[in-house]
Amino acid sequence: MMDVYEKKAVVIGSGIGGIAVAIRLKARGYQVDVLEKSEHPGGKLSECRSGDFRFDTGPSLFTLPALVDELFSLFGKKADDYFRVYSLPVTCNYFFPDGNQLKAWSDRQRFIEEAATCGANPIMVEEYLERQSFLYKYTSDFFLFNSIHRISSYMGDAGKKSLKALHRLDAFTSMHKRNLSFFGNTNLTRLFDRYATYNGSDPFRAPATLNMIAHLEHNTGAFFPEEGMFSIVQALMKLAEEEGVVFHFNTSVKTLHLIKGKVASVQTDNSAYLSDLVVNDTDILHFYRNILPDKKMSLKLSGRERSSSALIFYWGMNLSTQLDVHNILFSSDYRAEFKGIFQDKHFANDLTVYIFISKKVVKMDAPDGCENWFVMVNAPENTGQDWGAETERARKIILSTIKKRLNVDAEKYILCERVVTPVDIERNTSSVNGALYGQSSNSPWAAFLRHPNFSRKYRNLFFVGGSVHPGGGIPLCLASAKIVDNLIK
């Protein structure tokens, strides 16, 4: 009897998009090999430890958990049997320069009532959230879960559905301008402007279409895994390996072998992996520079503005606070911050500080009476700055901001410290210049200018991850895997 040939798929990179697409390909009957240059999976979604403290290193907010559930359901399994998710009562705790504080409750009505304490008209807040809900309802299937780079997509149900929201897309108005029209010069405008940072963009230039990001937190809720963000990766890895996906760590891809318009195999230092289908989960510019060198594509992508990066301090703190899982300490001049990031390529003199404390949910992440602080500021991409000097200056600003907003002299309580700069992000994750999301979304055409999830030259080459359509962050990386799955189907 003749053996049935099992189709072979190779996935380059094991970020969450790469793991998700590997699972989907396995469900389609492929033999799947995942090649990862690092010694562990997850990409930016990883973890580190310092003494008795554990830190999630990357994405810290979890929305649309149904996208993870769906991966388990492909094999008739339940995500709850692999990891548990906690619904956060407060999505974020905000501290403003004027001394006011706002808890963004997951309960929508409670949030609206809280927003009124910041001078916002409750009716306007309700109208704003309804607007974002409408946009998401009518456009997400097309813009987030579909390939917008193929004409056929516009003729499908998702494309037709999105036409109902065309008049409200707000693509030629900035996020800030639209938020200002709803809330005036109040703290709530600053709160909603913040969502531009979810894809590394500038709210004073990014299209107001992106305000729909707020829908995911304020209309659907925010979640947190009971064992930390990295447990999402661990759960998906367990599922993938149970189903026969093979992961190869400490394995760098050198090049692709091409035959007659297709990728025939993927070459590493020691092996060649035959492939009927290849999916890349590395930064798209890195891919065209180092894996499949293409001078024309490299020049094209290099000419586009890249997203912001990050400067992160992991502090083991010898104190216990009333802070929440997610906390934002706003600067006095938000506009100057983004000018520093995208124009000056240096930190401004006042910075918005994000403090993420997983210990608030995961009690084992820090000793009793202590907290694990993930302290981050948005940073410019690496263009050769003196990051030693930039880090020292930013650290002083951060400590000063914490003292002013929280009345805490944080430096006195730091037991251990680890620092990650844009240079480290580039080295550890192959994100060119340390840009977290590839290109920025500071243009009305940004969504259409993102690299598609398929190659126009090689018919069995596809792309997932934060640097291609539909963008960065856990939900969108999972969405990119779903798009590739549909393209293959």
Question: What are the main properties of this structure?
Answer:
single chain; 489 residues; alpha/beta; FAD/NAD(P)-binding domain; 3 domains; 35% helix; globular
Give the structure's gist in a few sentences.
By secondary structure, the protein is of the alpha/beta class. 35% of the residues lie in helices and 19% in strands. A hairpin with a 2-residue loop joins strand 10 and strand 11.
General description of the model:
The chain is globular and about 65 Å long. The protein has helices spanning 16-27, 66-73, 108-115, 122-143, 151-155, 157-162, 175-183, 187-193, 213-218, 230-242, 284-291, 295-302, 334-344, 387-406, 422-429, 446-449, 474-488, and strands spanning 8-12, 31-35, 47-50, 53-56, 85-87, 90-95, 101-105, 223-225, 246-248, 253-259, 262-268, 272-274, 277-280, 309-317, 326-329, 353-356, 371-379, 414-420, 461-463. Strands 7-6-15-16-17-14-18 form a seven-stranded mixed β-sheet. It contains 17 helices and 19 strands. Helix 1 packs parallel to helix 10 and helix 11 (284-291) packs antiparallel against helix 12 (295-302).
